[in-house]
Specification:
heterodimer, A: alpha+beta, 23% helix, B: alpha/beta, Rossmann fold, 8 strands
Chain lengths: 88, 256
């Protein structure tokens, strides 16, 4: 199905794509057709920089369980960093 | 029927990429597959799916050409940048898809292009899968350029009001009264978009308005069961479905 479930958030950082490192400015999160994962649908996580063209993209596909685990570990890591005094 | 040609008189095809004037006169790429010979040939506009103007759709177009149709598959994402099909599709998804009005304009331009070709028999069908199925139905409801329409598992044909957007402001089911061509629908009963219940809703609306349609629903298949490049592929259902597509277009457009 084309779920058209897609959300965006601004991000600041860098990603390594097919042409090397580039600055990323946006994360696109979706749940829709998988391109490579052997599943009908996947959680889609793209780090992009629209000003550099559609190829400026680091793409990840994963199942929902992986996504939940990733979110939990991201949050745990952020919590640890903040507890250590890192807030930027 | 697939694989039913006579070996004494095989017919080849040619394929190429051309540029046509799409909606607003914008120059857009289109993949064209045409049978050898002088015709007359019916035409088909192939409307690619959300994953983009991709290699599957090139092969899809060539299969239809193998069966006697002059086929054009416009790149509906051509204005949105270039790169690999999956990179462009990712951009389009993040942008909320393409506007129905733009798709309508590009598809009607493609139909006019087909009718202008030497060897055209004057008839044109439209077919699409996934978002292309929805687009095909939307276009055949708003344009009189088409003599037959095939919607293969189009998601969002039936859509709650809260899911409508400025780009897709009307659910195609609500255009049923205006549908101007006979409709073929193929669906997998395990699909989640459209669900069997949504297909029921669409079918009830077609009946209500007395439309010419045929729906075929497949057990053991979900979404995209023609997609041999994905795990969605279901061989038996896909081959039966291809038979339904070819029979439908032969009936309404001519061809072989």
């Amino acid at each position: 199905m084309c779920t058209m479930i897609s959300m965006q958030t601004a991000v600041s950082g860098s990603g390594k794509g097919s042409a090397g490192w580039f600055p990323i400015s946006q994360a696109n999160v979706g749940f829709d057709h998988a391109t490579h994962t052997q599943a009908e649908h996947a959680l889609l996580l793209d780090f992009v920089n629209p000003t550099l063209g559609a190829g400026a993209r680091v793409a990840i596909e994963m199942d929902l369980a992986s996504g939940r685990a990733l979110v939990a570990q991201l949050q745990a890591t952020i919590n640890e960093a903040e507890k250590s005094g890192f807030n930027e | 029927m697939w694989n039913s040609f006579n070996t004494a008189s095989p017919q080849g095809i040619s394929a190429s990429v051309t540029t046509i004037a799409g909606g607003n006169g914008d120059q857009i790429h289109a993949y064209v597959a045409r049978p050898e010979g002088s015709g007359p040939f019916p035409g088909i506009v192939a409307v690619h799916h959300l994953p983009g103007w991709d290699e599957f759709y090139q092969e899809f177009a060539r299969r239809l050409a193998n069966h006697g149709y002059l086929v054009i598959c416009p790149d509906l994402y051509c204005r949105d940048g270039h790169g690999t099909p999956d990179d462009i599709a990712a951009k389009i998804r993040a942008d909320g898809g393409v506007a129905d009005d733009r798709v309508l304009a590009d598809c009607t331009a493609a139909a006019q292009w087909l009718k202008s070709q030497p060897g055209s028999n004057g008839k044109v069908g439209i077919i699409g899968t996934c978002s292309g199925g929805r687009h095909s139905l939307m276009v055949a409801s708003r344009s009189s350029d088409f003599d037959a329409v095939a919607d293969l598992w189009g998601g969002g044909v039936v859509a709650p009001k809260e899911s409508l957007t400025p780009k897709q402001p009307v659910a195609p089911v609500d255009m049923t009264r205006d549908l101007k061509a006979p409709l073929l629908g193929l669906f997998g009963n395990d699909d989640q978009r459209p669900t069997p219940a949504e297909v029921d809703t669409h079918e009830a609306e077609l009946k209500k308005h007395g439309k010419d349609y045929e729906f075929h629903r497949y057990d053991g298949a979900g979404h995209g069961f023609f997609y041999y490049d994905r795990p969605l592929y279901r061989q038996q259902q896909a081959m039966d479905g291809w038979g339904k597509v070819l029979d439908f277009f032969k009936k309404h457009l001519g061809g072989k």
